[in-house]
Specification:
alpha/beta, Rossmann fold, 7-stranded mixed sheet, 6-stranded parallel sheet, 11 helices, 43% helix, 18% strand, globular
Length: 369
C-alpha cells in the first residue's frame, strides 16, 4: 500500500513538474507559430495609380483582392505611390513594419528603386512585374501580354483601310517595346502593307498628352485604327470622338460604339492566384522569372465589336490556337526598323531577352515626334 501511495505521489509530482516546465515551452512554440502564420498571411500591394480608377490600377486591385479573399489572407494596399521619388521604398518599409510576408511591386520602375532595399528584408518575398532587377527574394512575375497584343495587331491589320495604325505608348522600355513589336508583327501577318506609328507620352498616365497624341496620329499620320499602352482610356475617348476604330488595353470598356473593336486583357485574378499560391507554398522566389501566358487563360482579347466579321474572328482564333500549341511569335527572321537583324531563320528570341532586353522596335514601326 505504501509503495502504491509513493508511486501515486511520484506521478503527481512528475505531472506538476512537466506542466511547469513544458507549458512555457509550448506557449513559446505556439506564439512563434502564430506570429509566423500571421506574418505569412499578410500580403502587401504597391501600385502607381488610384485603385478606384478604371484601367491598369483598378483591374490589378480587383484581381489581387479576389485572390487574397480566396486564400483568406489579408491584403495591405498602398496606392498612388509615385515612381522614382522615394515613395516606393517608404511604402515597402511601412508594409514590412505592418507584417507583410510578401510584397508585390505593381509598377515598372519599383524594382529598380527597391533593389538596394529588398536585401534588408530577407524574410519577405518580393514579386515585381519588371524583369530589370532580380534578387534572391525578388522574382519577376508577369503575363505574356504580348501574345494578346499580337492577336490585336492581327485584327488591326484586317480592319485598317489607310494601312496606318496609331499606337500611343508610355515609354520605350522593354515591356512597352515588347508589346509594340508583337502588335506590329501581328499587323504584318494579316496586312504586310500596313505600318504602326508610335507616339511616346513619357508617363503611364497623362490624359492631356495622351489625347493630344491620339489626335495627331489620326490627323497627321492618317491612322484609322488606334491602340495604346497607358493606364487609362484617354486614347479610346479620342478615337470614339473622331469615329476611328480602336483596341483598348487592360480593361473592358463600356459606353462606346462599334468602333471599340476589343480589349487586350489579363485575367488578373488567375495571375494573382498563381502568385499567392506559390508564395504560400514557399516557391515564389524559387526561379528567376514567372511568366503566365495565353495557354493558361491569363491573357486574351475581350468580346468583339459587331463590326468585326465572323471571318476575322475565325482567323484570329486560328492564330490564337497556334500560339497555344507553341507557335512562337518572336521566331524566324525578324529585322528592327533600322534594318538590323534581331532574329535569324530557324531561331527564336529567348524569354530572358524578351523580359530584360528589348531596346529596339521591329520593321514596320515608325515613331512620330
Amino acid at each position: 500500500m505504501n509503495y502504491l501511495l509513493k508511486l501515486k505521489n511520484f506521478n503527481l509530482i512528475a505531472a506538476i513538474f512537466s506542466f511547469l516546465i513544458l507549458t512555457p515551452l509550448v506557449m513559446v512554440i505556439f506564439n512563434f507559430s502564430y506570429e509566423f502564420e500571421e506574418h505569412r498571411e499578410k500580403i502587401g500591394f504597391i501600385i502607381l495609380g488610384d485603385i478606384k480608377i478604371a484601367g491598369w490600377n483598378e483591374s490589378q486591385y480587383r484581381g489581387i483582392k479576389t485572390a487574397c479573399e480566396n486564400f483568406d489572407v489579408e491584403l495591405l494596399v498602398r496606392d498612388k505611390v509615385k515612381e522614382n521619388c522615394g515613395e516606393c521604398p517608404a511604402a515597402i518599409k511601412n508594409l514590412a513594419e505592418n507584417g507583410a510576408g510578401m510584397i508585390f511591386l505593381a509598377s515598372y520602375s519599383y524594382s529598380i528603386e527597391a533593389q538596394n532595399l529588398v536585401g534588408e528584408y530577407p524574410g519577405i518575398a518580393f514579386a515585381t512585374n519588371s524583369a530589370e532587377v532580380h534578387a534572391k527574394n525578388m522574382t519577376a512575375y508577369f503575363v505574356r501580354m504580348y501574345q494578346a497584343r499580337y492577336l490585336a495587331g492581327a485584327l488591326a491589320g484586317m480592319k485598317t483601310k489607310s494601312n496606318v495604325i496609331g499606337y500611343v505608348a508610355a515609354m520605350p522600355n522593354t515591356e512597352v517595346n515588347r508589346g509594340i513589336n508583337a502588335f506590329t508583327l501581328g499587323v504584318l501577318r494579316t496586312n504586310p502593307k500596313a505600318k504602326v506609328v508610335v507616339m511616346w507620352t513619357g508617363s503611364w498616365q497623362n490624359e492631356e498628352i495622351e489625347k493630344i497624341h491620339a489626335q495627331r496620329l489620326i490627323e497627321e499620320a492618317g491612322a484609322d485604327v488606334l491602340t495604346y499602352h497607358q493606364d487609362e482610356d484617354a486614347t479610346a475617348q479620342v478615337a470614339e470622338k473622331f469615329g476611328v476604330d480602336f483596341i483598348a488595353y487592360n480593361e473592358i470598356l463600356s459606353g462606346y460604339s462599334e468602333h471599340y473593336l476589343t480589349s487586350v486583357i489579363c485575367r488578373w485574378d488567375l495571375y494573382y492566384t498563381d502568385i499567392i499560391q506559390r508564395y504560400l507554398k514557399g516557391e515564389l522566389n524559387s526561379v528567376k522569372n514567372h511568366w503566365l501566358g495565353i495557354d493558361r487563360g491569363a491573357v486574351t482579347l475581350s468580346d468583339y465589336s459587331p463590326s468585326v466579321t465572323k471571318e476575322m474572328i475565325s482567323q484570329i482564333e486560328s492564330i490564337k490556337q497556334g500560339i497555344i500549341y507553341h507557335n512562337l511569335i518572336f521566331a524566324g527572321e525578324i529585322y528592327d526598323n533600322q534594318g538590323k537583324i534581331r532574329c535569324k531563320k530557324g531561331e527564336a528570341i529567348s524569354d530572358d531577352t524578351l523580359l530584360e532586353n528589348i531596346n529596339w522596335l521591329v520593321r514596320g514601326v515608325e515613331v512620330l515626334e
